[in-house]
Specification:
Blueprint: E1 15-20, E2 24-26, E3 30-38, E4 44-46, E5 51-53, E6 58-62, E7 68-73, E8 77-89, E9 95-106, E10 110-118, E11 129-132, E12 135-138, E13 144-149, E14 155-160, E15 166-167, E16 171-173, E17 185-187, E18 191-199, E19 210-212, E20 218-219, E21 225-231, E22 236-241, E23 245-246, E24 250-252, E25 259-260, E26 263-264, E27 266-267, E28 274-277, H1 282-286, E29 291-294, E30 301-308, E31 311-318, E32 324-327, E33 335-340, E34 343-351
Parallel strand pairs: 2-9, 10-17, 18-25, 18-26
Antiparallel strand pairs: 1-3, 3-7, 4-8, 5-8, 6-7, 8-9, 10-13, 11-12, 11-14, 14-16, 15-17, 18-21, 19-20, 19-22, 22-24, 23-27, 28-29, 29-32, 30-31, 30-33, 33-34
Length: 352
């Protein structure tokens, strides 16, 4: 019968095997060492203890003298860890079994951290690449970064970004032995212009459309044009808003140059224009007409037609307000119509 003192007994030749929970660790990591005695002869017994040699600067945490010991090292280096046990087989002369395992202990990595900020606004800048030798990191949404280097590393920390140059360009660090913070950089970002024209389905420019999504809203001018100044690297969704039209969104991931973005609208159900019959009196004539249209969409074009006695005439009206005068006092029997050019079926007529 084998007395194995907590060692695993398996049907193998007599041997002692030493293993470790990790063979590559850093100082102050806790490593568990195992000494396992294997015995093929049921008459073999051990002497009840394990003799360990852990090398220099080893602190035993738990399990001293047993087959499972927890150890931490306070200095870097390679350790050849040895264990042995005394074994007696069938009452014969005691023998000693030993085994080793090699562990490599290194110093823990050093962290270098800081913030990348916009010189003009003080806001953090995301997606800036920061290198320290072969070690890299990327700034987060707030401009913060953290990277790791080997203990004792020396060299330059350098930010890289397509949108501007940094102050300082890089920072040199002497051999580092502790974590470093506030390794900061600032930059003045390049500015770019996003511009375009908004039109309806017929290609007519649409004025006074609000462009949302960028830092501050802007509106299209009388020719449907807009211009937005944005910082390099800006990203977001540009959305035009108008009660009569629906526009697609424009998604920008990373603005790195001037960009032209036109929008073509899908027309919502428009209001139906109405024709108001005025009082065709001398007062009406003196005021240059008495026929008016209402329910117009500002900025849209309408075709106004007059028909009388097999004669037809027409002109294009640019709606500058919701209600507009569209003609003088018509002859009795004349027919006046107004239709939205972009949706001809949306029309109104009146016979005088």
């Amino acid at each position: 019968m084998c007395m194995c003192l907590g060692f695993t007994k398996l049907s193998y030749a007599q041997s002692l095997v030493v293993t470790a929970s990790q063979t590559n660790a850093t100082t102050n990591d806790i490593i568990t060492f195992y000494a396992t005695f294997y015995d093929q002869n049921s008459g073999c017994v051990d002497d009840g203890s394990v003799n360990w040699n852990f090398g220099t600067n080893a602190i035993i945490i738990d399990g001293a003298g047993s087959g499972m010991v927890q150890v931490r090292y306070t200095s870097a280096g390679t350790r050849r860890v040895f264990a042995n046990v005394n074994v007696n087989c069938n009452g014969g002369r005691p023998s000693r079994l030993g085994s080793t395992v090699t562990v490599n202990i290194t110093l823990p990595l050093i962290t270098i951290s800081g913030t990348i900020t916009n010189t003009n606004t003080g806001a953090g800048i995301s997606n800036v690449a920061i290198s320290a030798g072969s070690n890299y990191a990327t700034s987060d949404i707030n401009g913060n970064y953290t990277l790791e280097v080997p203990n004792g590393w020396s060299g330059t920390v350098t930010p890289s970004y397509s949108c501007g140059t940094f102050s300082p360009n890089s920072i040199y660090l002497n051999p580092v032995s502790s974590n470093l913070t506030n390794i900061n950089f600032t930059t003045q970002l390049n500015n770019y212009v996003l511009s375009g024209v908004l039109t309806n389905g017929c290609g007519t420019p649409i004025p006074n459309v609000e462009i949302t999504g960028q830092p501050s809203s802007v509106f299209t001018d009388g020719q449907g044009r807009y211009t937005v100044n944005l910082s390099c690297g800006w990203g977001g969704a540009i959305t035009p808003i108008h009660p009569t039209y629906t526009f697609p969104n424009l998604i920008i991931d990373f603005l790195s140059a001037n960009r032209v973005a036109d929008f073509s609208a899908t027309i919502n159900q428009p209001p139906t224009p109405q024709i108001i019959q005025g009082d065709c009196s001398l007062i009406c004539i003196a005021n240059f007409g008495c026929v008016a249209a209402t329910n117009l969409v500002i900025g849209e074009q309408y075709r106004v037609t007059y028909s009388y006695n097999n004669s037809l005439s027409s002109y294009i009206l640019d709606a500058t307000s919701n209600s507009m005068r569209i003609g003088s006092c018509p002859t009795r029997g004349a027919r006046v119509c107004i239709a939205w050019i972009c949706a001809p079926e949306n029309s109104a007529c009146h016979t005088y």
